[in-house]
Amino acid sequence: MKSPILHILFALVTLAIPAFSEGPNLEESSKVRAIVSSLKFQTGTVTLKDGLAKIALPPEFRFLGPENASKVLTQLWRNPPGERPLGMIVPTKADLLSDDAWAVIVRWEEEGYVKDDDAAKINYTDLLKQMQAQVHAGNAEREQKGYPAMELIGWAAPPRYDVAAKKMYWAKELSVAGGDEHTLNYNLRLLGRRGVLVLNAVAAMSQLAEIEQATPTILRMVDFQEGHRYADFTPGKDKVAAYGLAALVAGGVLAKTGLLAKLGFFLAKGAKLIIIGVAALGAGIKKFFAKKDVNG
Question: Could you tell me the pTM of the whole model?
Answer without folding.
Answer: 0.76
